[in-house]
Amino acid sequence: MTEIHSTRLEGLDLARFIAFVGMVIINFKIAMGADDGAGILSLLTIAIEGRAAATFVTLAGIGLGLAALRSEYSQTVIVTLKRAVFLFVIGLLNSLIFDADILHYYALYFLFGVMMLTTKSRWLLASIVLLNVVFVAMVLAFDYDLGWNWDDYSYTDLWTPAGFIRNLFFNGWHPVIPWLGFLLFGIALSRISLSQASTQNRLILFGAVAFVSAEFVGTNLTNILFSIHPELAVFATTAPVPPMPLYMIAGLGVASFIVGFCLRFASLFSRIGIMRIVTPAGRQTLTLYIAHILIGMGVLEGLGMLGEQNLSTAVMAALLFCLIATVYALLWSRYFKRGPIEAIMRKVAG
């Protein structure tokens, strides 16, 4: 029983590592002003754009749900609220450097998520549907482009009260509506038998079917809606901006597939030595996320590589950073149980 539990946790750490690598690739691509271009590399980055972050949020939901199962409910609520405040503060500081920060959104996901920890799974899934319906209604009722300068992806009134709330809940990079749905999905997943191979296989199958179906429907529906009126095509997009329902389905599919795959093959990866290398990085993703902005993008800025770079350069820079980050995490883990930021959060918020 102990071995199964350990493998399960290692599988989730591997999933966090994969999601982190995907996020670094996309964020470096944005920061370096790399165009999508053409070819396999372009298709790969388009496929992971928004999906890696969605997987990251889903994993946070799984972690929150598992914490609730292991601890007293009141204690889980108190610790989660403290950590939400911590993430909100460092996320806002991070936003001063990188507009596409996800941490301050995370704080709100946790705030609302912890309120729904005792909600039955069927109502969590119903809430995911409702979030998508509300978002579509908001797009119809309000101007989604308000605040955005799409030429350089800057948000002109982010630091005004109205702009900040609009960005946080509606038209930011990872708006609470509907992105909270990924966290709720993770909470629901935490309640099923994740350690069983049959469950892992179903997650893999569901994830693959959901992703492929969303992309297939999106491609065909886009053409139909565009022929009716060009502006209607946005409602069939699977791109993360704006996060329409088909994007959410694709994101949930990728998250499900990665979680199931990593849990299913954690033992195999452990036997061939992969887990020993990547698990420390998977347990320090908060530290590494901040490092890829402060250090990674800082180095790129010093080298004059922020803007007008090609896609291959951006991807190579991201992979090089991830390699260095993995080596760092491996060395750090020999002396310390937690990463630097994780240790600070633990001390401050429990």
Automatic annotation (TrEMBL):
Transmembrane segments: 12-32, 52-69, 76-96, 102-118, 123-142, 176-194, 203-226, 246-266, 286-305, 311-331
Domain Heparan-alpha-glucosaminide N-acetyltransferase catalytic: 8-200
Highest taxon above the source species: Bacteria
Keyword Membrane found: yes
Coiled coil location: none
Signal peptide: none
Pfam families: DUF418, HGSNAT_cat
Keywords assigned: Membrane, Transmembrane, Transmembrane helix
Residue span, DUF418 domain: 243-349
Record protein name field: Transporter
